[in-house]
């Protein structure tokens, strides 16, 4: 999977990394059980500080998406049961973004099309 | 003999220096990063041509003068060698001067034309790139290392038959020309130096393997091809050169113990074939890697470019980037690797064995 980082974006590099890895899993480009490169190798290949990659890996681990294996890297976890708690967290993330789109002038239909367009790029499971 | 050796080496330097602008990474021109969209620019092509023509012409003048100077009169061997060394440095100095001139011109050109403007700088990597890496495994280095340790033991076992004067230096014709008194240290000094060199090569190999595989956002496929070729072929070259050095030094060591194996023709042919091996190996390496990113067609995405790293490259030659954990990075002007001077591990890998090596040879 190819990772693209916008070097001069307002979004910090570690967040871009996290998002792209999650999107990669959603699209099926990387699958549960696959391993991600070691922090050092990843940072060297991208030419970024090791802390940046480390931060992203820890964020992903906290979300339960990867499992960090000391010295060898990180492994993508298999799908867990969706808990009520996680659902609430996701809803809290969705709500302000959708509200913002609506307030800025997108119609409900447009928003629905946008979301289903994104969902179409993701792998069915 | 001296003349032939120096002439071949100088010719080799001249050919490589002339060809460099056409062997370097496609998006780096005279040490300046140029976005993929502009690498076919007319002025850039002109600069490359002028550089190569100037270096080639001056090289021919220098080599012909050297030839005429040697043939016009009887010259002493050490005179020929000294002059040879001087013209080699002169040639390198000349090409660096031309390089610096065109480095400044290209930098100016990039600024005047605002090439970096309106392009979004991107960094890119491939999560599976590490599994495509074809560098030699590190444990291959154990073979020459074990052979050297064996040689040291063998030398100490044969301590009694060693001559009272141990040779420490050999001239270009393979003849020993400096000696020291026999002690158990001086008997294995040469092999010890060899061992240090082998450890240094092993350190360089490991550090290279850990260093980043840098891909280009605008030419993903050709940069992948180049980085993987560079890594593969440089690990081969490093190992072949190390095997050559090991054989050469082991031969000198064995010749000290058993002088009869070094009689006549062998003495001349072994150092000479080592030189030829290194030169031809380097030439093949430079061409293989230099061509690796020129063969593929690339389609350029209009609005992006690679992150401009010119600020990390002092004079386009020396890399200082403390955020990059890489110890080695691909050279900008030339084919091969250079140190990330902001990373202290790199300096340690080079300096420690080198110091030990120097200390051993002056003891």
From TrEMBL, chain A:
PROSITE patterns in the record: HTH_GNTR
Keyword hit for Transcription regulation: yes
CDD domains: WHTH_GntR
InterPro entries per record: Tscrpt_reg_HTH_GntR (IPR000524), WH-like_DNA-bd_sf (IPR036388), WH_DNA-bd_sf (IPR036390)
Highest taxon of source: Bacteria
Domain HTH gntR-type: residue ranges: 11-79
Alphabetically ordered keywords of this record: DNA-binding, Transcription, Transcription regulation
One Pfam family of this chain: GntR
GO molecular function, one term: DNA-binding transcription factor activity
Protein name: GntR family transcriptional regulator
Organism: Ureibacillus chungkukjangi
Automatic annotation (TrEMBL), chain B:
Any single GO BP term: response to toxic substance
UniProt keyword list: Membrane, Transmembrane, Transmembrane helix
Domain of life: Bacteria
Residue span(s) of domain DUF5808: 322-346
Signal peptide, first to last residue: none
Membrane spanning residue stretches: 6-24, 50-69, 81-102, 138-157, 187-207, 233-252, 264-287, 341-362
Name by which UniProt lists this protein: Putative membrane protein
Lineage: Bacteria, Bacillati, Bacillota, Bacilli, Bacillales
